[in-house]
Description:
Layout: E1 2-8, H1 12-31, E2 35-40, E3 46-51, H2 56-64, H3 67-70, E4 74-80
Antiparallel strand pairs: 1-3, 1-4, 2-3
Amino acid sequence: MFVLELTYIAPMERIDAALAEHVAWLDAHYASGVFIASGRKDPRDGGIIIAVGDDRAKMEEIVKSDPFTVAGVCEYTVTKFIATKTVPALEPYREELPS
């Protein structure tokens, strides 16, 4: 599993101009089952996406395709973690620690 943290690096007007395309990009990754949660940070200086997978290279490619990245309005930090404990609703996403 990954935490994808967006940090805005452009004025909010440029963020808002790319927002519709970014939301469509999010929707496509929700539909494919890769994204399971997302939202703005508070204060609004970026966002967080929780993504399912274990391939860092694939996740890096996904964030490079974000219209926000393409427009040069945000930077990403990609953090992989092993979800060993979850609420019952997220049980399908639990992982075992490597031996």
